[in-house]
Amino acid sequence: MSLTQIPATTAEVIAIRPGPPLAGAVTVDASKNAALPLLAAAAALRRPVQLSNVPTSADVQVMLTLVQQAGHRLARTVGDPSTVLFMGGGTGTIAPELFETAGRIRASYYLVPALLATHGRAVLPWPGGCRIGGRGMEQHFRMYEAFGDRYAVDARGYSVVAGNARTDSVSVMLPFRSRGATVAAILRAVVAGRPLRLGLPNLSPEVTSVLRAVRSAGWGAQATERMIALTPPTAASADGSIAWAVPGDKIEAGTLACALAATGGHGRIEGVRGEDVAPVVAALRWLGVPVAVQENALLVHARNMQPTGHSLRAIASLSPGGLDADFEPALMALALGLPGTHLFADTINPGRHSNLVPQLASLGADIDQISATQCRLTGPQRLTGAGVESTDIRTGSALLIAGLTARGVTTLGGLQQLRRGHADLPAKLRALGADICEVTP
Fold this sequence. Notes:
It is a single chain. This protein has about 450 residues and is of the alpha+beta class. It has helices at about 30-45, 60-70, 100, 110-120, 140-145, 180-190, 205-215, 250-260, 280-285, 330-335, 350-360, 395-405, 415-420, 425-430; strands at about 1-5, 15, 25, 50, 75, 80-85, 120-125, 150-155, 155-160, 170-175, 195-200, 220-225, 225-230, 240-245, 265-270, 290-295, 295-300, 315, 340-345, 365-370, 375-380, 385-390, 410-415, 435-440. It has a five-stranded mixed beta sheet with strand order 1-24-2-23-22. It has a four-stranded mixed beta sheet with strand order 3-15-17-16. Helix 1 packs parallel to helix 7 (about 205-215), helix 10 (about 330-335) packs parallel to helix 12 (about 395-405) and helix 12 packs across helix 13. It is globular and about 65 Å long.
């Protein structure tokens, strides 16, 4: 095997070597998790929408294909491939390839309202994407029933048929704060033109981005921890084109911050809202990592780091202000090098630890799996380079961090999984000085 210093964008395997502390400035890409529901929201509105800062990650490209296969007309701004124009309407026929394409991502369920609006029926496969646990749709189906829709399921997927048009208010209480069901309920109300009272909503930044988007389209939208209340727009405010922008990727920002901290580096991460990364900033400070939050940027000063020895409790949560489950793998990779006994739990994605922990163990990590969703480790530990696999998006990003501190060379495969959520995370790390190379035969 030989190593060549060329971009890793199209590589199938990369090699990571430890080196000096990372340093410099880097700008995060737009958020995949925010872009997917915003694309579905634009399709559901069926009016001209300009969506800027659209990322080039693989899952977003699949969603753009799905929107077109659902009969919507899209265009790109000349000279700005990150801006997508929705031409409105959406009355074309459904492409026969839509069912197969939809199985490649989890977020295909966001398209149900748009399909109901234009075709009266949605037929989709069970959600795909990362293999990190079940993809339950029960809350979605309860919500569609509240709107008078009918659904059916089989081994391959599910169908939803639109109910009769009505204008009365819809009230739904979610049993827990599901992001997918919250976004789907908002978009179903938009399509139906009906007031909505949604209890126990998810209020993650990805959901609040959708709420801001529908407000710009004339909808009244109020949100508290207990309820989201939507009110349809007046006829005058329901016309005309609107413009939205995808926010910066909070998960990419948190991952880069953990990489800077793990190497004792110093850097500026731009393009992310401070409130979106508040939970991971709090975790880093608890561990002794100096982090400053500025408008649209994070500053990590880990060269002055004084590890506290505090035990971190990284518990994934759906509650407002809670730790997003996608932050947990990067924090685990960081905690391996810091003193303390650290606990990690993710009941939201019950299969994630079964992906991540064995890969870290291949690098020599000693992690006690308390249960399928909880694990514990005591640091600092010394890792040794080995061959590992990006079995899902967040496992891949955590292994990148671990490889930056492991002795010797770490080779990382499965990059197609990493690219589903990040256009090129290795390039961001290289910009900060990481020694990351493409592996060629």
